[in-house]
Q: What sequence folds into this?
C-alpha cells in the first residue's frame, strides 16, 4: 500500500493471461514456476518419516483427520521446504511399479494453478505422494466452515476461473481425467491463490473409488458404468460452481429444480448479503446448469469454461490474499539495511521515532519550495509561524494532543504543505492511538516528497499498528530502497 506506487503494476491479470492462451506454453507452466518447483523424485521412507515427525497425528492436515481413508500430513524436508505428504491406506496400489509410474506421469504436469506433485515413495506396503504445501486451507473450509468472513464474491469468481485454467492445462497435457473434483480438492497457496490438487490426477487405485463424496453428487454416467470420462470432470466442475454460488453443498438435482423454477435467488449464499452482481451470478448459474446436464455429450469442454468465466473477473488488480483477508508472509528485510528511523518503525518504538524526528527537524525539506521562506512578511505569515512554533513546542514536550491541534491549523494555513508537519502529526496520531489518521498523514507526506524514506517508514509503522503486516513490510522495503538511493547519490 502506497499512495503513489501500485504494488500490482507488474502482476499479470487473468484477462491478460487469457489473451496469451494461444501462445506456446512450457510443459511446466511458465518458466518462473518451473524454476520454483523442484524436479519430481522418489523419496525414501526414512526421509518422509523424518519430514512428518514419524507421521505424527499433530501433522495431519486432512480435514477429516485420521478418519480419512488416505491421510495427508504436513512435512518439512531437509532443505526446509514445506510439503504435503499423502499416505495411502495399506490396500491401495498393490503394484509398487504401477504406483511410481503413475505418480511420475502426474509429476510431469506442472502449472501455476496446480498443487504440483514433487515426489513419491513406494517401500514395502507404503505408498506416499509428496506435493507442494498449501498453507491457507481448502475451498471447503472457506465456503462451508469460515470463521471471520464468508468468501467474497470476487474470490469465488476467481476460484471458478483458476480451476478452469488448471483443468484446461491438464486437458492439454492429455490428463483429461480428474477423480472426484470437489471443494476439498481446491487449496489456497501462500498468496491466497486457489490451486487444484494434483492428487486427483492419479488413476483409480484398486480399493479406491473415483468419487468419495455422496453418490448424489456423482455424474450420472459414473452411477451407470462406474467409470470416469472427461465429461464427468465437467459435471464435477458444475457441482463446485454450485458450492461457490450457494456456500452450501447442494445436490445437483435440487439445484437444477431451483434453476428451472427461476428461483436463482434461493440458490445464492445468504451470507454474501447481496454483495454480488446479479448478471454475473446469472451467468455462473447458467454455466453450472450446462455442466450438470445428464447427458455427457451436452456438457461444455474446458475451453468453453474459460471463455465463460474469464469476462466475470472484475477486480483483477486486487491480490487474492487481500480479497480473502489473509495475512501474507513476507520475508523480513534485514535490519542492517534500515536506517535508525526505519529500525525504530520496524520495532514500533514510538519514543525512538519521536526522538529521531525531533533531531531531524525540517532539514529534509531544505531546498524544497516552502511558502514560508518566500512570502511577503505579513500578519498572516506571522500567525503561521507562531502556529508552527507552538506545534513544534508541543511536539517536543510530548503534548501530542496540542501538537495535533496546532499542526492541523497549520496545514489549513499553508499554501504549500510541509512533509515534516504531516510526519510529525502522523506520529502524534500514533501516540494518541489513532493509526488510521496517522497512515493518512504519512501518505500525505509521501505526496509532498515522493521519495522521502521517512514517509514510507511512518506508513509502515501505522500499517503495523493496524495489523497489516504484509503492507507494512512492503513500506519498510520501499523506505530502505529510497534510503539506499539517496546515499548512493551522495557518494556520486
A:
Amino acid at each position: 500500500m502506497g499512495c503513489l506506487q501500485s504494488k500490482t503494476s507488474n502482476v499479470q491479470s487473468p484477462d491478460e493471461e487469457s489473451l496469451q492462451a494461444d501462445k506456446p506454453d512450457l510443459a511446466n507452466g511458465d518458466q518462473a514456476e518451473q524454476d520454483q518447483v523442484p524436479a519430481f523424485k522418489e523419496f525414501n521412507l526414512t526421509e518422509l518419516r523424518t519430514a512428518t515427525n514419524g507421521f505424527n497425528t499433530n501433522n495431519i492436515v486432512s480435514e477429516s483427520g485420521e478418519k480419512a481413508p488416505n491421510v495427508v500430513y504436513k512435512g518439512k524436508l531437509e532443505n526446509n521446504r514445506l510439503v504435503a505428504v499423502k499416505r495411502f491406506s495399506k490396500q491401495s496400489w498393490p503394484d509398487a511399479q504401477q504406483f511410481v509410474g503413475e505418480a511420475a506421469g502426474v509429476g510431469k504436469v506442472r502449472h501455476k494453478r496446480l498443487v504440483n506433485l514433487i515426489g513419491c515413495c513406494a517401500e514395502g506396503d507404503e505408498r506416499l505422494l509428496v506435493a507442494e504445501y498449501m498453507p491457507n486451507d481448502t475451498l471447503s473450509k472457506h465456503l462451508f466452515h469460515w470463521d471471520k468472513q464468508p468468501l467474497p464474491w470476487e474470490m469465488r469468481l476467481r476460484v471458478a476461473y483458476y480451476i478452469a485454467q488448471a483443468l484446461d492445462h491438464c486437458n492439454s497435457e492429455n490428463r483429461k481425467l480428474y477423480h472426484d473434483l470437489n471443494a476439498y480438492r481446491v487449496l489456497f497457496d501462500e498468496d491466497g491463490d486457489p490451486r487444484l490438487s494434483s492428487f486427483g490426477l492419479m488413476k483409480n487405485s484398486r480399493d479406491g473409488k473415483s468419487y468419495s463424496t455422496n453418490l448424489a453428487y456423482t455424474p450420472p454416467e459414473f452411477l451407470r458404468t462406474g467409470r470416469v470420462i472427461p465429461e464427468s470432470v465437467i459435471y464435477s466442475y458444475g457441482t463446485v460452481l454450485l458450492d461457490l454460488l450457494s456456500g452450501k453443498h447442494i445436490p445437483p438435482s435440487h439445484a437444477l429444480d431451483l434453476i428451472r423454477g427461476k428461483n436463482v435467488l434461493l440458490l445464492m449464499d445468504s451470507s454474501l448479503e447481496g454483495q454480488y452482481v446479479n448478471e454475473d451470478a446469472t451467468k455462473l448459474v447458467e454455466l453450472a446448469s450446462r455442466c450438470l446436464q445428464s447427458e455427457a455429450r451436452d456438457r461444455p469442454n474446458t475451453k468453453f469454461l474459460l471463455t465463460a468465466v474469464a469476462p466475470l473477473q472484475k477486480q483483477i488488480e486486487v491480490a487474492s490474499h487481500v480479497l480473502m483477508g489473509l495475512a501474507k508472509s513476507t520475508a523480513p528485510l534485514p535490519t542492517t539495511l534500515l536506517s535508525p528511523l526505519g529500525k525504530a518503525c520496524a520495532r514500533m518504538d514510538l519514543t525512538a521515532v519521536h526522538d529521531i524526528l525531533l533531531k531531524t527537524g525540517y532539514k529534509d525539506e531544505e531546498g524544497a519550495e516552502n511558502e514560508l521562506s518566500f512570502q511577503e512578511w505579513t500578519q498572516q505569515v506571522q500567525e503561521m509561524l507562531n502556529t508552527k512554533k507552538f506545534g513544534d513546542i508541543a511536539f517536543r514536550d510530548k503534548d501530542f494532543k496540542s501538537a495535533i491541534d496546532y499542526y492541523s491549523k497549520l496545514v489549513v494555513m499553508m499554501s504549500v504543505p510541509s512533509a515534516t508537519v504531516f510526519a510529525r502529526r502522523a506520529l502524534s496520531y500514533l501516540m494518541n492511538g489513532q493509526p488510521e489518521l496517522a497512515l493518512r498523514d504519512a501518505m500525505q507526506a509521501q505526496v509532498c516528497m515522493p521519495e522521502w524514506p521517512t514517509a514510507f517508514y511512518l506508513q509502515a509503522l501505522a500499517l503495523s499498528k493496524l495489523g497489516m503486516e504484509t503492507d507494512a513490510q512492503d513500506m519498510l522495503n520501499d523506505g530502505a530502497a529510497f534510503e539506499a538511493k539517496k546515499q548512493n547519490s551522495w557518494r556520486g
About this structure: The first strand starts at residue 41 and ends at 42. The chain has three domains: 1-26+136-329, 37-133, 335-491. Confidence is low (pLDDT under 50) at residues 1-35, 369-376.
